[in-house]
Amino acid sequence: MLASKISGMRRSKIWLSSSSSAAAATLRRTHSLFSTATTTTTTTLEKAITDNIVPQPWIDSQQPWIDYNNNNNNNTTTYQYFQNNAFRTSSGPPTHAVQNPATGEVLGHVPEMTTGEFDSVVQSSEDAFDNEWKHVPVQQRQRVMLKLQDKIRKHTDDLARLITLENGKTIEDARGDVFRGLEMVESACFIAPQLLGDSLSGISGTMDCVSYREPLGVCAGICPFNFPAMIPLWMFPLAIAAGNTFVLKPSEKTPGVSLLLAQMLYEDCGLPENVLQVVHGGKPMVDQICTHPAVRAVSFVGSSRVGRYIHQLSSKHGKRVQANLGAKNHAVILLDEISDELLEKAVPAIVGAAFGAAGQRCMALSTLVFVVAAGDLALQEKKDWMISEICNQASALTVGNGMDPTSDIGPLITSESKQRVMNIIDQALDGNDDDAVQLNLDGRRRDGMDGTNFIGPTVLSNVTTDNSAYTEEIFGPVLTCLQPVDTLEDAIRLINRNPYGNGCALFTSNGSAARTFTSKVHVGQVGINVPIPVPLPMFSFTGSRGSLLGDLNFYGKSGVQFYTQLKTVSTNWPNYTDNAASSSSSLGGV
User: Fold this and answer.
1) Residues in a beta bridge with 528
2) Using one digit for the tens of pLDDT, what is the confidence trace for 228-254?
3) 219 catalytic residue (yes or no)
4) What pLDDT, in 10s, does the model give residues 348-364?
5) 133, 229 in Cβ contact below 8 A?
6) Which of 223, 290, 362, 391 is flagged as catalytic?
């Protein structure tokens, strides 16, 4: 069947799929896997989804963390921080505007909190840890997380709409964001077995030895904009369930969800005061987190440049650090060892993995590597068909406001992000000639997207490994198809030469090839016919090499180990008979 399609493509130069919406359907099916069944009444905002307008009354009634009349800063609409189980207005300047990426509307401003305010937050966290939370039995801490997961499940849509409002991703993608975070909370509901230690009796006469895990104290998390629910939920549920207190700094672009989660924990789940607090700011706040002597551990997800800075500064000040950095994720298509059926199924999977969330995720599939032996015209035609079909399905995706349920791809987070993506595409094509990079699909200038943060799916092919489209982490809806390699071994060497090690995939019908690829590729997360191999919470997020700084990964067993430390206790109690004799002697024989 595939051969006839390729033959048709050869005659017409392009083969148009009879199901051009296949990729869009795949995106929606993928999102639906992340959705949870909730029963909610129709709200003003639900109507606004259809109208593509978010009314101010909803913001007023549902966002108590916004001070709409900040008298400290000329009545500027300001996001508040969270301390002592309450939202508080910072006296610091409101320096960071929070905008709806789809419309450009300013929703509020994030302040740069003062040093005094941050010190007060950390002191409150220390007091909460020392005086209460570390003494709470693990069963009770688990029950708090059990209540939180129920609250998140019931309010998935509220969280998703807030994500779309501030981040721009589609409603379905936002539900997926919430659901992946919910899975992390569910894992924290049964943390007790992972806190178990070891014991050995009689190590020397009457000596016994036991080890167990203790919480660290005050921990902190610094989060990116692209997953406003999932990434914070990677961090604080495990940390809190393990007995720590937590200071959370959400992205200054998407602070709302973290504030709503904090409110849920205190008002509805019974978390004591100051076990979780939320702070705001940019680099000055990051510096305070990394240098404050009471902060014991720092978790970070974001860019490589910022991650290296945070790791270096925090380590210098004696803190434990886990930092997930940038990525360049490859998918290898083993064209001579893949069935026609699997190859056809791979196309919408690749389209969804490359362009979902507008490419703004560290696990986005950004690079295709085709294995085509030199001179093999049949495999060359297969490659050309696959690139053409990827373009067909990608061009059928609807780019639009994430509040519109018909949108498949939302905007980039800022106009600066869009301009950066545009510049990388321009650089990739600069000085191009007939034998160089090909622009198979251009999403830069779709109708109606001028002056906005939107950019459509873009496909480049015949790209060399020294081209900016490959050397840069684009963080946008751009798929780079490298010049083909001759063998699977060549593909593995190409991936291993790349400095990043977050994720990779192989599409093949050959189990032996899959085994070779899995064992030889130097990447922390590998998918076989799975384009985005993100592990579930019972495992850990195991990015490696240039994609990770620190010894312990996020969530799973590694996550629990990161937020705890081992204590070993050796005891020497005499045998009961010896003890009795000694006691009798000391009491004069009484």
Assistant:
1) 506
2) 999 999 999 999 999 999 999 999 999
3) no
4) 999 999 999 999 999 99
5) no
6) 362
Residue 567 and residue 396 in contact, taking contact as beta carbons nearer than 8 Å: no
Does residue 331 contact residue 255 with C-beta atoms inside 8 Å?
no
- Which of 153, 183, 186, 174 is closest to 39 using CA atoms? 153
Across the strands, what pairs with 331?
368, 505
Q: How far apart are CA 303 and CA 310, in angstroms?
A: 11
DSSP notation for 40-69: ----HHHHHHHHT---HHHHHHH-TTEEEE
Element (H, E) at 151: helix 138-154
Which two three-digit tokens encode residue 46? 């639900």
Closest CA to 21 of 392, 366, 346: 392
pTM: 0.88
Kindly list the distances between the CA atom of residue 148 and the CA atoms of 21, 142, 163, 192, 571, in Å, as whole numbers in the listed order.
Answer: 37, 10, 18, 17, 39
Q: What is the three-class DSSP state of 189?
A: coil
Total number of residues shown for the chain: 590
171 CB contacts (<8 Å, ≥6 apart)? 49, 160, 161, 164, 402, 403, 405
Neighbouring-strand partners of residue 569: 210
